[in-house]
Specification:
The chain is α/β, with parallel strands linked by helices. Among the domains are: 34-123, Death Domain, Fas, CATH 1.10.533.10; 181-325 and 360-438, Rossmann fold (3-Layer(aba) Sandwich). The protein is built from 15 helices and eleven strands. The protein has helices at 14-30, 34-42, 44-50, 53-62, 68-75, 80-90, 98-108, 112-124, 138-141, 181-187, 222-235, 248-259, 293-299, 385-397, 403-416; strands at 200-206, 239-244, 269-275, 278-279, 282-284, 290-292, 313-318, 364-368, 378-379, 383-384, 434-437. It has a six-stranded mixed β-sheet, sandwiched between helices. The protein is globular and about 80 Å long. Residues 326-351 are annotated as: Disordered. It catalyses: Strict requirement for an Asp residue at P1, with 316-Asp being essential for proteolytic activity and has a preferred cleavage sequence of Val-Asp-Val-Ala-Asp-|-. It comes from Molossus molossus. Residues 354-447 form the Caspase family p10 domain.
Length: 452
């Protein structure tokens, strides 16, 4: 919007008024995404009853979501309920950024419980599209009809933050290819037993909205991640528990409670996925405190979780492990090389004991979104690079590939991907995932077999 010359009256700069007019019309043409409208609609009564407007309207005015005239029109209504209804009637007409700005305003005015309500509804909608964050990938995430103020610069704080880069579209619908009876018959005897119904229990713990003193950013796109993993694990035959926005103490207590569930005794495996901001060796709770990953693994080891002894336990960590952004290097001329000589080693001198003993920690495999000391990447529409690759590979290859090999395939996809943020130092940045394993057999998930 044009800035009036000092001393001039607002009515004089006609060109500026026309520009503002065109901007208002552009907002109305673009409109709010249907999923965002639906989330507002489903929570309309609760919002109308509980919204506190006085400060909220000032934030929306500052973000150019409403005008002065709109604010006065809302305030002219008699009673808070009527004023709230008038705002809810206006929001869907205020462009593709209105929902995101509304959520941000709720956070800034200490009404985060209403934001959580909206985001929870949004994550349950089919083809979920989370609100776009102003802090990430601004020029690329906005619809083409929306012009964003040029003075708003891309802010990618590298400390304990997953970066939001590239310009691809939203999440895709998941389908898992079933295992054939022939494949099952050829492989089940040499692999971990995976026949129980459900296959096991899965816990997805996702922190999206942070309130602690650390001032950690809202993880825009995190909703896509946990929705995708919940869907994937259900399709693979797991009973899924979803926990959102937990403090560090809550994470510790609920992970411990999950590890002690009696159902582990009668199921064949277990999955834990942690999605949050992080540092090397730990993930953040929403209060800005760190939960050490070694403590998480300890809860599920052979000493503390006997119900899962000799059963495969899968962990997936979507979080930064440091503040370094991988800038990548140019490949030199020459053919691609993948030296991976296979080696086998066996211990034939194992002494038979009266009572079998186990190492304290075994039968675990853990996939990390990025390497030690580096940052992870996340797209505001499609979610994190790692979770997207993970769901893609598991949907396509769980039918005929064991988990360790699937994580190699995930590594390959992550290796090929690069950031898209022209004009910033993060353009063409890279990420590299990895995994570590104490599995003692192949872990096939055998989706769909035996058939129901």
């Amino acid at each position: 919007m044009a800035t009036p010359i000092a001393g001039s009256r607002p009515a004089l700069p006609v060109k500026g008024l026309m520009t503002a007019d065109r901007r208002r019309r552009a907002l109305e043409v673009c409109g709010m995404h249907p999923d965002h409208q639906e989330a507002l609609k489903k929570n309309r009564v609760m919002l109308a009853k509980q919204l506190l407007l006085s400060e909220l309207l000032e934030h929306l005015l500052e973000k150019d979501i409403i005008t002065l005239e709109m604010r006065e029109h809302i305030q002219a209504k008699v009673g808070s309920f009527s004023q709230n209804v008038e705002l809810l009637n206006l929001l869907p007409k205020r462009g593709p950024q209105a929902f995101d700005a509304f959520c941000a305003a709720l956070r800034e005015t200490k009404q985060g419980h209403l934001e959580d309500l909206l985001l929870s509804t949004l994550s349950g909608l089919q083809h979920v599209l989370p609100p776009l964050s102003h802090d990430y990938d601004l020029s690329l995430s906005l619809p083409v009809c929306e012009s964003y103020p040029p003075h708003k610069k891309l802010r990618l704080s590298v400390e304990t933050v997953e970066h939001s880069l590239d310009n691809r579209d939203g999440p895709h619908c998941l389908q898992v290819k079933p295992c054939t009876p022939e494949f099952y018959q050829m492989h089940y005897q040499l692999a971990y037993r995976l026949q129980s119904r459900p296959r096991g229990l899965a816990l997805v713990l996702s922190n999206v909205h942070f309130t602690g003193e650390k001032d950690l950013d809202f993880r825009s796109g995190g909703d896509v991640d946990h929705s995708s993993l919940v869907t994937l694990f259900k399709l693979l035959g797991y009973k899924v528990h979803l926990l959102l926005n937990q403090t560090t103490q809550d994470m510790q207590e609920k992970l411990q409670s999950f590890a002690q569930l009696p159902a582990h005794r009668v199921t064949d495996s277990c999955i834990v996925a942690l999605l949050s901001h992080g540092v090397e060796g730990g993930v953040y709770g929403v209060d800005g405190k760190v939960l050490q990953l070694q403590e998480v693994f300890r809860l599920f080891d052979n000493a503390n979780c006997p119900s899962l002894q000799n059963k495969p336990k899968m962990f997936f960590i979507q979080a930064c492990r440091g503040d370094e952004t991988d800038r990548g290097v140019d490949q030199q001329d020459g053919k691609d090389r993948c030296p991976s000589p296979e080696r086998e080693a066996s211990d034939t001198g194992t002494q038979e004991l009266l009572k079998t003993r186990l190492p304290t920690r075994s039968d675990m495999i853990c996939g990390y979104a990025c390497l030690r000391g580096t940052a992870a990447m996340r797209n505001t529409k499609r979610g994190s690079w790692y979770v997207e690759a993970l769901t893609q590979v598991f949907c396509e290859r769980a039918c005929d590939m064991h988990v360790a090999d699937m994580l190699v395939e995930v590594n390959r996809l992550i290796k090929e991907r690069e950031g898209y943020a022209p004009g910033t130092e993060f353009h063409r940045c890279k990420e590299m995932s990895e995994y570590c394993s104490t599995l003692c057999q192949h872990l096939y998930l055998f989706p769909g077999h035996p058939p129901t």
